[in-house]
Every structure is written in C-alpha cells, then in structure tokens.
Input
Amino acid sequence: MSEWIGEYRLTTPLRTTGSGSARWGIAMRGLERYFLKEFLSPVYPVNEDTPLGRRQRERCLAFERQKRRLYAAISCVIGDTLVPVVDFFRVGGKYYAISEAMSPLSVSAEEARGLSDEDKRDILHQLAVCLARLHVQGVIHADLKPEHVLLTRKPGGYRARLIDLDSGLLSDDPPPGGRDMEGDPVYLAPEAFLRMAGQPSSLDGRVDTFAFGALIHRLWTGELPAFDRSRYAYLYEAALDGASFSLSDALPKEYHRMVRRMLRPQPQRRPDDAELAALFAPAPAPPVSSDLQNPLSRYLRR
Output
C-alpha cells in the first residue's frame, strides 16, 4: 500500500543523502510527479505546554516563517534555470517541501563527461544569469556545487537547472548564528564559515560568488584550484589564511583573473553578478552581409 504524505503519494522510499539533514523521494499528486523533501529538523513538539515544548514550538514557527519568506522570494525569480519550491507544509511533527521532479535523464554537472568548451561556457552563462536573478530577489543559494546543477541534453547543448535551495538564506534575514546554516565545506565561502563559527560576518550574494568560482574551475578542468593540502583541508581555510593557490592551465586565460577575484577572502573585492554574466555571454553573431540578405544586390550593382 502506498504511503501518503498530505496530498502526495510516495512512489519511492524516502532516503537520506549528503549531510543527513533531510530525506527525499519521488511523489505523485494526481498525474503530476514531484520531488518531495522531508526535513529531519526541527520537529514540531507533541506537547506544547511544557517549557521544552514551548521553546521547540517557537523554533518551529521561526523555521516556518523563514522558509515561507524564502520560497516566496524564490518564486519571483524569472527564467526556468532555477527549480523552485512549489509547496511547503507540515504533517504531524515533520515539515515537507515539494518541487518539480527532474527528468530521469538529467545528470549532475559533477557527473557530466565530455562537455565541449562551448557547452561549458553556455552552462556557466545560464548559471551566472540565474544567480544574478536570485540575488536581485535577496536570496543566497548558500550551497552552490556541481551536484546541485542538473544538466539535460537539448538540441545544440545542455539545459542547466539549479536545484536544492533548502540551505538558502535571505540576505536581509540571515540566521543569527551558525546553528541553522548548512553548506558543503568544499565550496564554502570564508564569511559563511566565520558565521558558522559564531564570529560576526555579513552575508550576501557574494557567498555564492566564492562557490561559483570553485565550481567554474571544477566544471572546466575536473578539479578544484590547488592549494597546500598539508596545511588546509578546504579552500576557504586557505583563503582566510591568505595562502596562495594555483589555477589549472586547462582553464582559459580569460577566466583566470575572474576566478581569482571570485575566490578572494574579502567579499567586497569579488566581482559582481553583471561581470560574471557578461564574461560567459555568447559572442555576438557576425553581421550579415547585405549581399547575403539580398542575393540579387551583387548583380544589381553590375
């Protein structure tokens, strides 16, 4: 017998991946197929009348307010590169988020192989434009990495979709401390780590800029920027310590300077979204010759 969660019928078992902060599966509502995520924390208390229950209830209500504001802002992002959350609700003590189920043919940018330079540039342009639109709405993805970029073949290239904004933040309402922040340490920005460590630091869209710099290098070359791994486990540690790192020669020269700027420890010294979108924008098509527009013109001139 199928399990129902609210209006959604599970068609796969719920499973845990990544940090283990949630479980996910595929569900149906009517004839539509969805991605369903179950948050493992916070859990709404069974008894709200105890001191512990009241504290837990307040935490849950704050979680609800933050998620509803976040998802409302995400829904205002134009374009179809971002996969938004279309439903958010609580059943019993658990919270759930519903989003579009991606095609089974989609692969993550981490799994993609054999991409041409033209494909890579197009994918990075799609992501740069999507991040710029996300940041205009005051949203920080906060967990940008190749596994959260899904690619589907289309005529002449790939369609990129950016998923999993459940670690996302509103730049005008970031978590007061690090307890409610998540993010893959491999792509974590220095200021996000400082906030997690309880140190004061402001957070805005440039958190994603740092991660995007590392993602660009990984997608193009297959590896992260090199740093002294005998001293540092992660890129943000090397950045905070002012250590040097090297970029692969496989990365085109025109991207070298931009990626270095994106990985600066000071957020205010990183490039803005418009620069990144312009860097990866497709080259303008050459003007069409008047002779090609009107084949008779060459004969008329005679």
User: Anything to note?
Assistant: The mean pLDDT is 89.
